[in-house]
Amino acid sequence: MKKILVIALLLLGICSSLLTGCGKKANRVVIYTAAEEERIEYLQKELNAKFPEYEIVFQSIGTGALVSKLQAEGKSTECDIFYERSFL
User: Fold this and answer.
1) What is the pLDDT of residues 14-38, one digit of tens each?
2) Which of 37, 38, 55, 61 is the Cys-Cys partner for 66 at CB 3.0 to 4.6 Å?
3) pLDDT tens-digit profile of 43-70?
């Protein structure tokens, strides 16, 4: 669990530094995920505590629909981070 949180926080840190200068809201991070609800709740709590200056929004979508949505949106997606649980 700690490994996943560290990866998510690292990705959020990288993403948040890239957001300044984009046309998006600089203080909003959108994360697309197909993870289970308990994992999302845990990550939401931890990320809100670590980065209180950001509005972190998880969009939970089924795996197949998520891939289709990302393909359809292409570069004009509102997604900043794609989070999928790794079994490694």
Assistant:
1) 554 444 444 456 799 999 998 889 9
2) 61
3) 999 999 999 999 999 998 887 888 888 8
Q: Report DSSP letters for 28-88, one per residue.
A: EEEEEE---HHHHHHHHHHHHHH-TTSEEEEEE--HHHHHHHHHHHGGG---SEEE-----
How far is 20 from 62, CA to CA, in rounded Å? 30
Antiparallel, parallel or unpaired: β 55-60 and 28-33: parallel
For residue 16, what are the contacts with CB-CB under 8 A and spacing of at least 6?
29, 51, 54
Whether 54 contacts 28, CB under 8 Å: yes
CA dist 22 and 43 (Å) reads 25
Domain range list for the chain = 2-12+32-83
pTM higher than the cut 0.85: no
